[in-house]
Every structure is written in structure tokens, then in C-alpha cells.
Design brief:
Elements (H helix, E strand, L loop, with lengths): L3 E4 L10 H11 L7 H13 L5 H8 L8 H16 L5 H12 L3 E9 H11 L4 E9 L2 E7 L6 H13 L7 E5 L5 H5 L3 E5 L3 H10 L3 E2 L2
Parallel strand pairs: 1-2, 1-5, 2-3, 5-6, 6-7
Antiparallel strand pairs: 3-4
Helix pairs in contact: 1-2, 1-4, 4-6
Length: about 220
Amino acid sequence: MGAIHFWDMDHTLIDNDCDVSWKEFLIAEGLAPAADRELVDLYYQQYACNELDEAAFMAFQLREFVGHDLAHMRALTQQHFEALVRRTVYPAAYDKVQDLRGRGEAICLLTATNRIIAEPVATHFGFPDIAATELQLIDGRFTGEVTGTCCVGLGKIKHLQAYCTARDVEAADVWYYGDSVADIPVLAAVGHPVAVNPMPELRQEAAQRNWPIIEF
């Protein structure tokens, strides 16, 4: 295998944060309390500052998964995509991914968001693979726990490296497209970093390191 193009999801492919909109969807559907909005804002600010309390966030974010089976949650996350996410897709990002697919390039969605929420986005763009936070199932039902390493921060690098190792691909042949300060360690770890719609901190870092910057 040659190069692999890894894409971050939120604010890179879509003008949206799926972990935020997922809770908004649940609140609108009466499946989560309205008071959760304050915690959504708190955790998003932590993430934006690269200071996320992963354990507390995952417990909060996965509360509505507990006790449900895969089919039920996939139906809900598809509804979430149709209601709030589809309209936020960057057309130019969609075209870029389709161009890569058309040229036969290997592509993978690499996201901190859990796999079940990310799947409809991956399907819409045509990603054959997702590297994401994985959720535990016991007896066919979600426990509210994560399996393996959360795909957040340095954990995202671990997921990327594991994916590449399994396909015998070197870091020098890897592209990564990301938007946030949290993506800087991942961008620094690959041969072809690309800052997409970068946050101010990433924009500054990209300028200093001569990383390409693209805007969707």
C-alpha cells in the first residue's frame, strides 16, 4: 500500500461538532435533560483548549448509550446525521475526498468521536474505514464504557500508528488533515500534515512549520 490520507471529522469535513450536536439532538428528542447543555459547553471549551477530562466527558457523552443495542443506537445516530449534520458538510471537502477516492488513494476517517456517531458521516463521504473511539458491548448492549484507547489527543496518534502498522505504511507516507490545536501532535507525527480551517493556534503553528493550509 502507498500513502494513506487520514481525515479529522469535526470542523474539517463538516462545519459542526458531532459530540455537541449529538447532545442537542438528544435534548430535542427528550432523551437527555436540558441541563446537559451547560456541560456540553464546558466539555467543548476543555477540548478547544486541549484540556479535556476524557473520563468525565465519556461518562457524560455515553450515558444515553447504556443498555441499548447496536441497531437502536445506529438508528438514532442516523437520525442525528439527517437532522443536524448533513447540512453542515463542506462541499469542497466532499469534493476533495471524492477526488482522492477517484484516484484510488487510501482514505480513513480518524476522529475522536465514537464510531457509532461517526459512521453516518463516514458513509456519506465514502470512507471505507474509520479509526475512532470504540465502545464496549456486552451481551449485545452498550455498557457506557470505552474499549481500548480513546481516539483523543495522543490516543489519536496511537490509532493512526496501529492502522498504518497493520498495512505496513510508514509515517512519511501519511497525510493528515485536521483543524484544531488538539491535532498539532498528530500533524507533527506524519509526513504530510495539512491544516484545514485551522483554529488560531493551529494557524500560527502551521505558518511557523510551513504546513499547507486549506480552507473549505
